[in-house]
Structure formats: structure tokens, C-alpha cells
Amino acid sequence: MAIHTTAHTALIEALTARLGPGSVLTEAGDIGGHLVESRGLYRGEALAVVRPRDRDEVAFVVGECARAGIAVVPQGGNTGLVGGSVPYGGIVLSLDRLQTIREVDPVNATMTVEAGCILKSVHEAADRVGYFFPLSLPSEGSCRIGGNLATNAGGTAVLRYGNMRELTLGLEVVLADGRIWNGLKGLRKDNTGYDLRDLFIGSEGTLGIITAAVLKLFPKPQARGTAFIGCTSPHQALKLFERLRDGAGDQLTAFEYMTDFGLEIVLRHRPAAVRPFAGRHPSYALVELSSAQRDADLQSPLEAILGSALEEGLIEDAVIGASGAQSAALWALREELSEVQRLEGGSIKHDVAVPVSRVAEFIDAASGACEAAMPGIRVCAFGHFGDGNIHFNLSQPVGMDKSAYLAEWERFNRIVHDIVHRMNGSISAEHGIGLIKRDELPLYKDPVALDLMRSLKQTLDPRNILNPGKVIAIGAVGPAAFFTAGQP
Amino acid sequence: MAIHTTAHTALIEALTARLGPGSVLTEAGDIGGHLVESRGLYRGEALAVVRPRDRDEVAFVVGECARAGIAVVPQGGNTGLVGGSVPYGGIVLSLDRLQTIREVDPVNATMTVEAGCILKSVHEAADRVGYFFPLSLPSEGSCRIGGNLATNAGGTAVLRYGNMRELTLGLEVVLADGRIWNGLKGLRKDNTGYDLRDLFIGSEGTLGIITAAVLKLFPKPQARGTAFIGCTSPHQALKLFERLRDGAGDQLTAFEYMTDFGLEIVLRHRPAAVRPFAGRHPSYALVELSSAQRDADLQSPLEAILGSALEEGLIEDAVIGASGAQSAALWALREELSEVQRLEGGSIKHDVAVPVSRVAEFIDAASGACEAAMPGIRVCAFGHFGDGNIHFNLSQPVGMDKSAYLAEWERFNRIVHDIVHRMNGSISAEHGIGLIKRDELPLYKDPVALDLMRSLKQTLDPRNILNPGKVIAIGAVGPAAFFTAGQP
What we know:
2 copies of one chain form a homodimer. With 488 residues, the first copy, chain A, is of the alpha+beta class. In chain A, 33% of the residues lie in helices and 19% in strands. Chain A is built from 16 helices and 19 strands. Chain A has helices at residues 6-19, 28-31, 55-68, 119-128, 145-150, 158-161, 197-200, 234-248, 260-269, 299-311, 324-340, 359-373, 402-406, 409-422, 441-444, 447-460; strands at residues 24-25, 48-50, 72-75, 91-94, 101-105, 110-114, 131-132, 168-174, 180-183, 209-216, 218-219, 223-231, 252-259, 283-291, 317-320, 347-348, 351-353, 378-384, 389-395. Chain A has a 5-stranded antiparallel beta sheet. In chain A, strands 1-2-4-3 form a 4-stranded mixed beta sheet. Chain A has a 4-stranded antiparallel beta sheet with strand order 13-14-12-15, with helices on both faces. In chain A, a hairpin with a 4-residue loop joins strand 18 (378-384) and strand 19 (389-395). Mean pLDDT of chain A is 94; it is low at 481-488.
């Protein structure tokens, strides 16, 4: 429990006076869900959870906290995977009530939405005007746009459409002193000074509180072609990727990867899952072509490219979804994989990226190193192969004690991240730094970059009140960055 | 002529000692071309033009200037249109010798190039490995990648591929104190901290000196379809744009616009130019579909969409290029327009953007306001309609004195930019701020944004030595921002 001071009491009173008691929650029963990370890796504490209704209330809250020198930890759907939204003192600023879709402009192909909108509701609003918002994540039913922006979210559509950064044109942000920056422009071109937008996107709530954004919409895909392919190795999968990119161009909208171990555990734990073809293969690719043209024929190019790849021995087997239901069943094999890993015991996780040209080499090198470091460890490498982004997860050896296994987390981080670093890669491709990778970042990040980050933080948040202790440690940093609670 | 102090002499000696006399030019005959803006709007002065050979020499030069407190004005091809690379004291740092293509990685679809590479040579290097780098500008034979990055260059391919920002994955930058930030990563996903890359891109050399970049490559378009279309108004053109975007999706790679006046002056001054069809129309669109698929049929969708638009009276006339030569002739009508305007006397220029949904309304409103403000003025609105980016240029009334006309520059800026501002647009879509719009920017930019820009400049360049007086005025700002020299 936090120790309340007079300053705390005065702040809570001031916030309650302006927002009303229903917007300033302090009872343990009301705020408990806001204090924990979604997987239970971290548990924090807060004076209150504050739920402003609009941008001006957000600005008021931040301004009051700035004056009192009290930390503000912003939360959207609280679905992040790096401990970035767990409070250690101060208040939780929940954006969940800022749910207005302020404007939809189909001719400009943009939508202006508030930070608390749930991603799925943005999908639906785009759909209602005949458009498509591409960001797609497992948590899309509960994650919120503000969190997607704060973490520069990725997902399965990055290959064609880019990360959240590339999907955003303008922002509205409450700064650390409570001022509001209005950068809500829906322009494809604007060279009037420094790019403030991209400074806030991906800053995990440490530089400002994003309250609204202008998002790009796209013509709705009218035709899709999906295939599941068996390969002997990630090197074969990489050759197939090149073949598809060069042959299908922009129509290639997904190229996902999984291993034989990954497919087998999906089939083991999901009775509804159907084996795509009889044989087993060391590596699998899930491929999607799509087009905004209503009558586009995607089966033919898929058949042609996969057919010649089979003939040449570049791939071992392939199945093309003959119907929407079949395609959905192929996608389900990939989507279920995130969830079923926990049914195989402890999992040590990495979210890494390397240049696409080195992704097969990375999978081989890291798998070999981990298997050598612990016989029986089961590599579950999967994810966004076409972006060079692999979720390199390691399931525990069968029969090993789970907590003994998880105690090896940092050792395997070193093994995997050292290989990533040698390949000029990233130790956090799409999840961010938060708390879980904060103290690891200096091992791999260019020291000049770290110094610039520190300078930017001090410039934009000189009192260090915005999500303090996340991303970079400045001053008093709260808890040790690495969790000790173990996994659920 | 600048007054040389002991500090200046010591600096020149130190630079000469390290780089050699051939790299530190001080004779008027050697440096004259580096002191003027490409159209002659500005003429500055400099102690020397310094031509380092590599990144480490750049770092040395900037470090020495930082210690001496002497300004560094970076130059690439010196083709900018806003006076951003004109020196007012200090040294010119020419990046023209940093021309190494450090790496080409076709599998990652990236190329690592130094800042002094000419854009055209980057096109050619991409072509040699079967890829395509999309940035396309009139000055591509002489502009350099460093300048393209510093100004976040745009051009005719933004509709499909984005600005220079969207074409860049990593950067290497020499900071104001001479340190080097190595951010040369070729990753599609990297969420390890704040986005430094986009802070430097578009900062016009005022926050750091970009020495190299990792650029994205794309599958080469294998098929193209080009059409030239006559419309009764920009509103018709906008409806056509929507129709094409929704029907052709990603295949729509250009949607350019020009007026009857624009086409007529091209035909008047370019004897080789061919009228696309017999009749004249108030507005014209130049449209391109392209595809990376070798056998893609782009004529059929173009014919289908334009055919039904003609039937419905949405457009007045259209011609589809039946051969590569015919398509090139249609493109030439648009490309020549930039150049021929000067043959019609004085031209008051604006490079603006509005949401695409308001681009027709903007053209109408601004044309009406300017024609009312000066009877006989000839509106030459043209450009990247599909991005909402219009070069809203105003040719002088026939017979008017040119300098009397150009003396009205600021009055017309107010008229046009006030309309842009009301439409939540940008007064500099793709050219930047430089000197020419620096003192106008505070009239239209959110004051909080300006304040953030000032803070960032002070953080990254506390002594104000990097391209001082450009983009934002801090401390002693050199010349008045608005030129007085008149046009060539």
C-alpha cells in the first residue's frame, strides 16, 4: 500500500472536485485490475485510478499531477506484454472513456478517433463506410488505440501496411505540463517543421499522453487467397518468401511462419484444429494474397508460384484454401499458437527482429544455441517472418520443474539477444521496452541513442512524472526491471 | 564578405590540417555556387566550403565547429526551394563526396547509401539488382539523398509509396557536438525506444547531419497504364480519384492534376508537346496504374473505370497511352509544367496540402480569391492531387511589370495560406520551411508545436550551430526570412 501524504490527499480532492467522485477511484476493489500486468508478471500500486471523460479532463489531471509532482501512468486496454502500464505509485490515468470517433472522412480515407476506442470498434467503424483499418492483433477485442499508438503496435498486416506509425497521420497529445498539442491533421504531406508525431508514437506514455489520432483507412480487400506450406527449413521458407514478394508484389499481405513443434501443439490442444496435409515438415509458412479489386483472381498466381516451387523442390507440400472457411481454418493454426504454448509449461519469450535476409540464419543459430544450452528445450519460433520479426519462444523440457526453468529466463535472453545483436537486429520488434526490457536495453542499444533518448525525456518531461521508470531509468526508478513473480 | 576572426582562422587551419587543402575551399571562385539558392532567391556568405570524404571526417568538422561556436550549413545537391541550404556565415559542409553505396541487400529489399549519393544513382543501383526505389523528383539528376532526407522529399510516387520518411528504415547522423549516432538498421519492426530517425528526417539540417541511410526497395513495376483525362472541374477530378482508388486499389500509383492554363502553356512553349485530345477542359488528371506482376493487365481496368465515368458524365474525355512512348508523352505534359511557368513572367508560388476530401474545394476557393484580388492573374494549380498536395502557383497578368507583381508575394501568401489553414492544411507540403517560410510558420502552426520544436532544437543543438536561422528563429537569426532579391 502506498503511503499517502498531504500532497496526495490534496491531489485526489482536486481531481474529485473537477471530475466527480465516479471518475476518481481509490477503493482496492475498484482499482485492482489496473495494478497488474495482463499475464500477472508485475503487480504495482497506485493512489487512484482516474477516468477522465475527454481531452480537457485529461489535460486537467496531468496539469494537477505536474504541479504536485505525482506520477501519471496512462492505461488503455492494459493488454501490453512488457509491464509498460503497471503503476508504481502515482495515479493510473485510464483513457477508457475517450471513445468518441470524432470524424470519419471516407474521401480522405481517414478516421479521427479518441485514444480509448477499442481496436475492434475502429475496424467496425471503418467497415461501415466501406473501408478497412489494417492493424490486427490477438488482443483487438480489448486493446485500445491509445495503447496501440504508445507501443507502435505491429501484428500480422505489417508486411503490406506497416506498423501503427505508418497507419497514423495526426495526433492530439497532452504534454507533461498539461498543455495540449493539437496535431490532428489528416494530411498525406506536411513538411512544416519537426516530426512531433513519431516522437510520441512508440514512446510508451513516457513523453506525453495521446488523446486522439487521425488514422489512415484503406480500400477493403475484396479477394483473398490463403495457403499453408510445408518446408524443410527456414531457408526454404525464405526462398519462398522472395519468390512470392517478387511474383505477387503488393498482393502479398501476410507471410507467417511456424515450426513443426508449433503446429503439433496446436493440433494437440485444439481438437477443432485440422492438420493441413498428411506429412510433417520442419517449417511451415502461412501465406495470404489479397486485393482490393472485386474480381481479382488470386488462386491462379498462388497456384502458379507454389506449383513451380514444388516442382523445383523449393517447398515440400502446400494447400490452398478453397473456400473462406478453409482459409480461416488455416489461419486458425497460426492464431491458436500464441495461446496454446502455456499448456506446454513454462515459456521463455523473445520478440525479436533481424533483416529479412537473415531471418532463416537467425532461427537456425538461435535454435542451435538454445538446444545446446539446455538439452530437451523445445524451440517455438513463429511469427511475422516476412517482416524479419520472430517470436522466438522456448518451451521447457518435458518434465522439468516450471519455476526452475523460468529461473533461466535471463540466461536465455542473453543467448538469443546476443545473436540478434550480431545480426544488427532488435530485441523488441513489436512489444516495446516497458519494464521488462528496460535494464537490458543498454546492453544492446547504441549509447549515443540512449543518451539522446534521455535528453528527449528530460526535455519533454523534466519532472519525470509520465510513466516514470519505463523505457529508460531516470532518477528514482521504482522496481527492479526484471520481474521475479514468475509466470502464470 | 564575412569578417574573419582569429577563431575563424584557427578553425580553417584545423580543418585543412586534417582534411587537406583540397577539401577546405575558401576562394570566391570555388565557393560561389554554394552561396546561392538554386533559383537565385537568396545569396549568402561563408568562411569556407568543406568537403569531407567520409562520416568520420564529417564528425571531425562538426566537432571542430562546435568547439569554435561556428555555424555549419549542410548541403547536398543544393536544389532545395526554400533557401534551406544557403549559408549566412560559418562554413558550408558539402556532403557531395559521401557517395558510397555501402550495402545492397536484395533479400531484405534495402540499400545502405551515403548522404552524397545522387538520387538518380540510387535509382540505377536499385535497378541493377532488379528492384525499384520510388522517390521521383524533377531534380533527381542532381539532388542528393541527404537533402531528400533532410527535407522529407515527396514527388509523384507518394500516393502509393509515401514520402522519404516512409522510404527509410535507418539513419547514421553526426550530432551537433560531433558524436555519431549509428541507427543504420534495416529492420521493418524495431520498438526499442524513441523514434530518433523521424526526428532527423525533415529537420532540414538543423538537428543533425545525416551521413547515411538504409532505404527500402520495392519490386519493380512490370506493367504500367497511363491515362490523361479532361474534366469540367476539380470536383469531377476528385470523384474520378475516388473511383480509381476504390476500383484499382494499390495499383493506382499516380493521380496528378493540372488546369487548362497549365496545359496551354506547356503546348505554347514546348513544340514537341502533343495535345492529348481535340477539346479543351477546365481540369485535367494524369493517372497511372502499375503492377509488379509481369503479365498484369492494366488497360482493362483503366478502360472499364474511365469508360463508365464517361458514360455517367463524370469526366468529359480521356485518352489511354497505347504504348510506352504515348504514355511518356502524356507524362511529359505534366513534367514540363514546372519549367514552362517562368516563360509566362513572374510566378508567385505555394506548395500546400489539404485533406484529399477538400482539395477540389480548396482549388475553387483559392482560385476565386486570387482572381478577385487581382483581375487578370492566371492560376496555375497543379500537382499531386491524390495526396491533397497542390502547387498553387499564380502567373502574373499579361503585360504587368514583373517586379511590381512579385512585390505582391506576401499578400497572395496570406490569401492562399489563410484558406489552407481554414481547411486544416499545410503551408508546406513537400518543400519544407527553410528561410522562405520561417517567419510565416508562426502564423499558422500550433503554438505548442512551435514551442516543442524550439525545445527540441535547444536540446539537440544547444549552441545553435546547425543550419542556424532555418526552420525556426532562435537567437541571432541572420537575414530576414523573406527574400527581397526578386525572382530570376
